[in-house]
Design a protein that fits this description.
Helix 6 packs antiparallel against helix 8. The chain is mainly alpha-helical. It is built from 8 helices and 3 strands. The protein has a 3-stranded antiparallel beta sheet with strand order 1-2-3.
Length: 180
């Protein structure tokens, strides 16, 4: 499966998790796939503080959690969202998570890659290959880095894994997730 096919699968998974997403949420997905969490990782102390605060606010697990612990968001299969609720339900310690995430290498994405992925989203939408939210909030060329998710997106609690192909990152993802 090529880049376009993998992107379609990523978009389908995102729509299953967040059926009320808007075009701005798709823009954020592409931004994160391209640039990872670099903007947050540049201040590791603040990153860890914010992660611990969000972790403490997570609702107590009840019922079946449909979120995967790890959600691939990059058609190159390198960048993922690590969802906090399933991690907590798996018994992962926030200290382990904070240490691993804050020590990961920067992604160092490029504007050219962002534009390439966004153009693929536009192509997929125009071709009708997937039902993207183009009616209420038309897909357009992004103006800059996206902000928070829209209200229709629903609850979200995650952090970004910049590069699953990085040996040190792959080791801690395996250690943290596979051991559960």
């Amino acid at each position: 499966m090529g880049e376009r096919g993998r992107l379609i699968e990523i978009l389908k998974a995102e729509l299953r998790l967040h059926p009320g997403l808007a075009a701005a949420d798709l823009e954020k997905l592409v931004y994160q796939a391209t640039f990872g969490g670099d903007h947050l990782l540049r201040d590791p102390a603040r990153f860890e503080q914010d992660l611990r605060a969000e972790w403490d606010r997570l609702p107590v697990a009840s019922g079946i959690n449909t979120e995967p612990a790890l959600q691939l968001i990059d058609p190159s299969l390198r960048t993922a969202r690590l969802h906090l609720r399933p991690c907590r339900a798996l018994g992962i310690e926030v200290e382990d998570l904070a240490a691993a995430l804050s020590s990961q290498p920067l992604k160092n994405g490029t504007q050219a890659r962002f534009e390439r992925l966004w153009s693929l989203v536009l192509e997929v939408a125009r071709a009708g290959e997937i039902d993207l939210p183009t009616q209420a909030s038309p897909l357009r060329a992004p103006a800059g880095s996206p902000g928070h998710h829209t209200a229709g997106y629903g609850r979200a609690a995650y952090r970004l894994v910049n590069d699953l192909a990085d040996p040190s990152t792959a080791a801690w993802v395996e250690r943290i997730l596979a051991a559960r």
